[in-house]
């Protein structure tokens, strides 16, 4: 890739102003850090030159499967998923499958990413003028954060594994999404400094929804997250925060990596 590097990107939230919680401390540790040990974004071997056409076909399949939001479809058509996966997997980048991204984690399926973001767009407070601020738990390689960055006005994305946080930072650098803020920390605490959020989206499934997420949701906001119902069985959960309390809907079965506490 020949794009110039922008050393200041992704944007960091001033750690000096942030209280000394685990997120801000961890952020302070990484701001000056290099990218030692982090693999560069995959070269677009083979698929590179023609990736727009392959993405267009992927978007057509997403639309045929029921995704209707023009913003989501357009974002899915513009973010180059092949740049977020290992070069050995580039040829599968536009198939509707999750793929390994290292450290036993995966990049989510395009159908699941688009489905969850479309659900977020259905938040009461987003229906009139679109999604304002969104918190993503589980940055992974940064793919969904990049898609969100093209749909929402501001995106905060937290990852608990330093290696993946740095990988995402590397992957997103050249995209110049100045509205996407990558954080290293335990997403089970949410990220209070960015709250309240119009949307919270989790890419990892736990057996309960952390209180912090519900607290940090705006009235009129929506949470979309996988929930472990019984061992090996997860469902997609949608929680809306209203002025009278919370309403909850349980949707289809999903399969996400586990939500874990702490950083590593
Ligand atoms: N959003 C990614 C999916 C990454 S997989 C995509 O674009 O495809 C889910 C990620 O959630 C993993 O990287 C995992 O490390 C992370 N995760 C799990 N528990 C977490 C927590 N408590 N806080 C932050 N990240 C967490």
Fraction of residues in helix: 25-40%
The Cα radius of gyration reads 17 Å
* CATH fold title of the largest domain: Rossmann fold
Question: What ligand molecules are bound, each kind once?
Answer: S-adenosyl-L-homocysteine
| Global outline | globular
Instruction: Estimate the strand proportion.
Output: 25-35%
Question: How many helix segments?
Answer: 7
Tell me the strand order in the biggest sheet: 5-4-3-6-8-9-10
Main sheet overview: 7 strands, mixed
| Overall number of strands | 11
Q: How does the helix and strand content classify structurally?
A: alpha/beta
CATH class group of the largest domain? Alpha Beta
Low-pLDDT residue spans: 1-45
The tally of structural domains comes to 2
Tell me which CATH architecture of the largest domain applies here.
Answer: 3-Layer(aba) Sandwich
Report the span from N to C terminus: 30 Å
The whole-number mean of residue pLDDT values reads 86
SSE sequence, one letter per element: HHHEEHEHEHEEEHEEEE
What do these coordinates show?
There is one protein chain. By secondary structure, the protein is an alpha/beta fold. It folds into two domains: 17-78, no CATH class; 98-258, Rossmann fold (3-Layer(aba) Sandwich), CATH 3.40.50.150. It is built from seven helices and eleven strands. The chain has helices at residues 22-31, 51-64, 70-78, 110-121, 143-149, 162-173, 211-216; strands spanning 99-102, 105-107, 133-137, 154-159, 180-184, 197-202, 204-205, 217-230, 233-242, 245-254, 257-258. The strands form three sheets. It has a seven-stranded mixed beta sheet. The chain is globular. Residues 1-45 have low confidence and may be disordered. It binds S-adenosyl-L-homocysteine. S-adenosyl-L-homocysteine (SAH) binds at residues 105-108, 137-141, 143-144, 158-161, 164, 186-188, 203-204, 257, 259-261.
